[in-house]
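Report of the visiting student (M.T.), summer placement. My assignment was to run the structure pipeline on a short list of targets and document each run. The first record concerns HNH nuclease domain-containing protein.
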Amino acid sequence: MTSQERHDRIDDVPRAVADGSGSEAVPAGASVLDSAITTVVEVEHAIRRLTALRTVLLHGAVRLVPLAEEALLRPASSAARSPLTGQERELARRALVADLAAALQLPESTTSGLVAEAEVLVEDLPRTLAVVADGTMSYRHAQVVVEHTADLDTDARGAVEAAALPFAATSTPTGLARRVRRVREVVHPEPAVVRHRRAAADRKVRIDPAPDGMSWLSAFLPAAQGHAICDRLDHAAQTLAGPDEPRTVDQLRTDAFVALLLDDADGTAARSLAGSGVPGADEADDRPGPDAALASLVRAVVPRVAVTVPALTLLGHDEDAVLEGYGPIDPETARLLAAGAPSLTRILTHPETGAVLSVGRDTYRVPADLRRHLAVRDGTCRFPGCGRPARRCDVDHVTAAADAGATDASNLIHLCRHHHRLKHETSWRVRLDAMTQDAVWRSPSGRVHVVPPAEPGPVWSPPAGRRSPGRASVRLERDGLDGRAGGSAGGPGGTGLVDDPGPPPF
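After the run finished, the structure tokens were exported:
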């Protein structure tokens, strides 16, 4: 099905709901909700239009710098002035940015970023700015396009922009970034391995203060390592969670993180931080406190990452792989991950569209095979705007098994636990389009939202002579806890996907 045909089918859905030809009538009160949401959306569109206007005006202000350099640098004078040096011109620009920042009550760094983005959007990405100006997408969407085209030439930048804009109206900025990353990897003239090595040289850890004696600790590091770290913390938290555990999952993840980094085997470091909020810090005896035990548990977890690698990449070719929950990664990193993977699953994709044609069946156990197929098809939770990776979601029957819903791909989607409960306990409704595999949602107010399946292959057709990342691929996973199968959102010892628990309570 072509993109236009897909959009034509999508356009028919709201009309069916509006004229009553849909399967369900809009419930009482929905019109009131729809009116309130419509007003909010109209205000948001007005904000977007004004933001686009601000962008154009910022660009215009910067263009005035050459006409006002002397006023920006020194008091006006009729005396003859020598030509300004490049450094003086840059100082004039900085003076304008500082003037704008003071007037806008914004930090100079923030204002400088807005000015730089304005120059790119007006001069290099006018179509993106036009979409913001008509209210179709937010400025944050535009920033995603700017960020992912910063180091591209004109042709490559145009290709990324052309691929991004059709999805902007129905994607969150995070969802748009996932798509744009894939296109960027295809069109970028510099090999991914070279870019990754250069970017990795800038890895860093930083701490930022927060209110009430708290702080944010963040790290800039390779994507595979970051996802592995989060997976290890998830497994530790899920192992500890239970009816007798008072801490939330977020608290457990944080405590596992702290325990692992401050672990010195006997818990001395944790106890020395008494009163800091570190679990076990108030232990008075010399026995290993909860921190030491928790650190031992976290160390025992073997983190898992799931990567789809073109078969030719494993043979030495330079085709990018896809890290689940992130996007494209360079071939060198993919081969290193593959070398330590305990299992591989064959996936056959179309060489041009990247659509999944088949998933390998090394075993004839249909449920496991079906799960692998669904994970590739869905990629993430299929609720509008949710980007939680499929392996951390429940597999849910669209039509409940109790209502004769089939346990097959045409009736199963991934939903994170939060949206799984929302589907069962509220008036949100979903159906799965048999032809496109789109998840078509209807909100309590009667609005329709369409979530297409993941597209593991390219969303932009490469020029003649360039190979598509599609073709035969293998999916590799590394997992485990003390040598056993690793846990997931479904709890320790799981397969990475959770059986459909049926209607809540789960």
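The longest strand covers residues 204-210. The first helix runs from residue 3 to 18. I thank the supervising group for their guidance throughout the placement.
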